[in-house]
Amino acid sequence: MSNAIMQGFKFEDTTKSEDQPPLATSIVRRASTLELSVQSNSNTAGDVVFCDAAWKSGPASQEAPAGIGVFIQTGGVQHCKHLFVSALSPPASTPLQAEAFGLLLATKLAEILQLRGPQFYMDCLVLASAVTTDDITKTPGHWSIRPLIADIQRRSSFQASNIFHLHRSCNVKAHHHARLALKIQSRNLVVRCLCASTGGQCPARDISVISVAPFTLRCVKCA
């Protein structure tokens, strides 16, 4: 048992390896890959969701909430083209668990916005591989992420073929908002609409009044 746990933590140490090339890798059930250039999160088509987590342990290695950042780029004609979300997760015990919380929130937000076949991008290769497996009891990484993976896979917005891994340098927007969540974690929720048009529905305002439990929103902004 102890060996299995230690092996899990070894996986966690490689979840954000800087040796990965600056390309997005499609992680699918048969482990085949499709390389797709990602430049500044702007050259992808359709509805695209980027997610990331910022985490550090509390005093005496206690569990602590992670900062979650989600950047959504919509391809349809809507009130806004971009949505930025900073939120806090429930207490997480490891960086990998924090990343899994990030993807869970991303799938929840995609459901709320009723995105059709959204593509999810993350810079954690272990999570991208684990969440697309058929059997969560055989997922790579620490066992603590298995309940979160099961929850993610139940989401209507989730499709295994639409899970992508990318280098962290291409995930700067989600990363920024994950760090922002920790920075403003003691403040009240901030909602901002930066769209030029004032008519129509505002996704930022809609999300701010809908429960995304167990997450706590700290900043929601549309543009």
The largest pleated sheet is described as: 9 strands, mixed
Low-confidence parts lasting 5 or more residues at pLDDT below 50?
1-43
Count of individual beta strands: 9
Proportion of residues in extended strands: 15-25%
Number of helices: 6
Shape: globular
Write down the secondary-structure element order: HEEEEEHEHHEHEHE
How much helix, percentage-wise, in residues? Answer: 25-40%
Average of the residue pLDDT scores: 79
Rounded to the nearest angstrom, the radius of gyration is 17 Å
Based on secondary structure, the structural category is alpha/beta
- How far apart are the first and last residues' alpha carbons, in Å? 49 Å
Q: In what order do the strands lie side by side in the largest sheet?
A: 2-1-7-6-3-4-5-9-8
Topology:
Elements: H1 2-13, E1 24-26, E2 35-36, E3 48-54, E4 64-73, E5 82-92, H2 95-112, E6 119-122, H3 125-131, H4 146-154, E7 163-165, H5 172-183, E8 190-193, H6 203-208, E9 216-222
Helix pairs in contact: 2-4
